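The records we work with from here on pair a chain with its fold. Taken together, the tokens spell out the fold as the letters spell out the chain. The record below shows the convention in full.
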Amino acid sequence: GAERLKPGGYDVVVDAEWAGIIAHECFGHGMETDLYVRERALSRLYLGKQIASDIVNLFDDPSLIKESGGFFFDDEGALSSSTHIIKNGILMRGLTDLASAHKLHLAPSANGRRESFARKAYARMTNTFFAGGGSSVSPAPRRSRTGPPC
């Protein structure tokens, strides 16, 4: 029976489980750059822009071997490493496979994943998460945002 939310910016405070779901659904899928190549990701329009509070840092890190999305090398042979997607609230970059990295003139991010050896690799997230911080839950001063609402 709740009213529909109006589009816009909202302050959000969640626990770790929900933060992971938000990282995955709201940001992870939209940062897979094979969608940039096909012009199906709005996030490409916000690269280099402030889209969140300056306390927000988002990573994708397949080198976390003990996590469910961890691996040493992606399916195209790239050594796994951490990718800083949102840095201090600024949208920095997307996740690439080799083809999208080449077409978009980006450094590869070791996110080439494929269903089997017979299939093409696509840029797919691995362990996507918000970094912990030292902020309290007290309200921060409101600022205007340039990014899309999630």
About this structure: The chain has three helices and six strands.
